[in-house]
TrEMBL record:
It comes from Patiriisocius marinistellae. InterPro entries: Acyl_CoA_acyltransferase (IPR016181). Gene3D superfamilies: 3.40.630.30. This is Uncharacterized protein.
Amino acid sequence: MDYHSDRFKDYSLMVFKDDNLYAVLPANVKDGVVYSHQGLTYGSFVLQEKAKLLYAFEAFKALLKFLSSEGIQTLEIRNIPTFYNSLPADELSYFLFKAEAQLVKRDALMVIDTTHNLGFQKNRREGINKAIRNGLKIKVEDNFDSFWNEILIPNLTKKHGVKPVHSLEEIKLLASRFPENIKQVNVYKDDTIVAGTTVFLTKTTIHPQYVSGNSDKNAYGSLDLAYDFIINHFAKQKRYFDFNISSEENGTKLNSGLIFWKESCGARTFVADNYVVETVKYKTLDLNVL
């Protein structure tokens, strides 16, 4: 997280049990509120692999108590979507229920389970065939510059007047530190780049963080080809393919165009929740174990 430390005031916490790291909460503080780190897509309360429910509860309670003692009244915490977990790990959902936390945001994510792949619908398969007829080729390579400078950044600037969340320099730095977790997949017609995607890989999930094509993407079928490739290329090691959210305004509105496109690739819905919890709740928080 240090690469964007200038944008967020870090307030990450570690919980120890018998001098061993038991849980972590990547976090930042802003205007007196502690947040699941706003520079991370899914940073949250993360437990060590051997953690069990009752001890995990004590770790969460200790975290709230510490925040309260530091004068922090409110914690806004993100729940990691379950498909990113390497083990069953819904402890936080239960703890938040017991703490009477308020659900403030629920996003709809479109996800493919590669062990039960529904496949591309006819319109998406037609796009792949179009790409093949146009002679498009795909490469997994270290060339981030062409996609970012020639495709992604110009498209975001022209269509939305924004820049990518990461800079090119940040992505290249992250890729150098985590070469097995960040890949660049580019689509070429002859020797000219026409589309691409910067892909993030976790233990369980394939996540195209940035995807874009040039103005001929529909005529060429370049994005259909790119998605089909990365789903199948990485599926041997990863169970899920995360298309990211298809909701807006804290989950209160759905983007029907995105949903239609992603579902036509075989994706179905998971949710990602954000909660607000009052740290003072540690005083009354109890599991009532029988």
